[in-house]
Specification:
With 79 residues, this protein is an alpha+beta fold. The longest helix has 12 residues. The two termini are 18 Å apart.
Amino acid sequence: MRITITARHFKAPETLKNFVRSEVARLEKYYDGAMSAGVILSWEKLNQVAEITLKVARQHLAAVEKSEEIHKSITFAVE
């Protein structure tokens, strides 16, 4: 699966990108035909936002989560 990571208004460190890749890779066991995933990381006032868009066959699945920590937002969006 191809994973595109975009960080808005900050530069994501490589450790964060690796965390995103490992979390999104967990979705492959649920969606065999997953072709690509787009992850957008951003800030909104005091919250850190993770937005994940998954392209599966002829569908687009999206999840947006906000929390005080970016790692929590990513994990919640995957779940």
